[in-house]
Design a protein that fits this description.
By secondary structure, the protein is mainly alpha-helical. Helices cover 45% and strands 0% of the residues. It has one domain.
């Protein structure tokens, strides 16, 4: 997979000396202290890892720059972490994940006609299963009791992307320079980047883009 690197010089971790102690500890933990699996069993883990790989493919990244997603979701479930809200129609997040992963395996068996797990499928076949989930019409007993589309949007997509974009390697991918606390932002000039933020390939100088002041 060939993906253009829009911010080849981005290195958010190079700014860690400007963060306070608590912020630096939290961010560096995401890179260096990936948690061990505690909540999911081996089968659930395989399904979760396959799901994460389809939601946020990372084949274009060098192995050492790939963001671990499944371990952090496992850690959220093990700790009972929530996002501060819960839809009336959905169980708590750990249970929703357990049921959703089981539902993916049930849908795989039903759609393939074989005793297969979601993780056993080729990527294109996995995408076909996920399309049924996204559309809200997958086969499987789990989905008779829990909304597949709600699970897809508010559990799978929401939490996988949240873990991904909380990681500094993802910040580099989108040109985010990392936390601004306690340094703060001061270049409030029509959305142009701070001096310490990375520039996109081909971006003009911010000086040439600044409109003339209307004031003397």
């Amino acid at each position: 997979m060939s993906i253009r690197n829009r911010y080849p010089d981005a290195d958010s971790l190079s700014q860690r000396g400007h963060w306070d102690v608590a912020t630096r500890r939290v961010v560096l933990d995401r890179v260096h202290n990936v948690p061990e699996f505690q909540y999911f069993d081996e089968r659930q883990r395989a399904t979760l890892e396959a799901l994460c790989a389809r939601v946020m493919p990372q084949q274009h990244r060098p192995p050492e720059r790939r963001i671990p997603l499944a371990p952090w979701i496992d850690a959220r479930c093990a700790s009972g972490h929530t996002d501060g809200f819960l839809l009336d129609s959905m169980p708590k997040h750990p249970e929703a994940w357990t049921l959703g992963l089981l539902g993916l395996d049930q849908s795989t068996c039903a759609l393939s006609g074989e005793d297969l797990r979601f993780a056993d499928l080729e990527p294109a076949q996995q995408d076909a299963v996920l399309e049924h989930v996204r559309a809200g019409c997958p086969p499987g007993e789990v989905w008779q009791h829990m909304s597949a589309r709600t699970w897809w949007i508010f559990v799978a997509l929401r939490q996988i992307t949240a873990v991904y974009y909380a990681h500094p390697y993802a910040w580099d991918e989108i040109g985010f320079g990392g936390p601004a606390y306690p340094r703060g932002y001061f270049a409030l000039n029509f959305g142009h980047p701070e001096p310490w933020e990375p520039r996109e390939v081909g971006e003009q100088s911010t000086l040439s883009l600044r409109p003339a002041s209307r004031f003397p």
